[in-house]
Amino acid sequence: RERAEGVRFSIPPAEEFLALLPFALTAAQRRAMEEVAVDTASGAPMNRLVQGDVGSGKTMVAAYGAWLAAKNGGQCALMAPTELLAEQHFRSLAPLLGRAGVRVGLLTASGQGKARKGLYAALAAGEEGLVVGTHALLSEGVTFSNLALAITDEQHRFGVRQRGMLAEKAVNPHLLVMSATPIPRTLGLLLYGDLDISILDE
Question: What pTM does this model have?
Fold first, then answer.
């Protein structure tokens, strides 16, 4: 993947994103955002793990990535292991990114009927900037107009094949995985040797 050609993002001033937030970010969050910006502007696909305790602000780093993708005309998918977690992400991200004009959809196994078909159509047409969901995102009916960033939350709860299936919804999208499981750095390098690591330690 490092030798592959990825989507090269142009990076708007971070202050534009920060203006959407009703709170100040920690230095660790700002550092992780900068690392995401550098990766996505490099021309190679990003492969980054954001590791931090519950409450350390991983979701805001993901929100920044989704905002960057939207600013560059791309879409973002965020896959969570449970419907409850997917709904929590949706409730926090939809109003935040909505202020930037980014439409956010929710796709879970329990969603049925016209609403699901409408979301499928909106994703295929590029009208949804971010879709948050469970493994339902991997179903054959989900197609994207331009998936630029794939995010997996609590990534150890998914198999390697499941994570790969999300990335296969596009050609060399940027990948961001998040985990609250604390791991020593040396073990992290062994487990995630294919990933650059951002640590939220505040």
Answer: 0.91
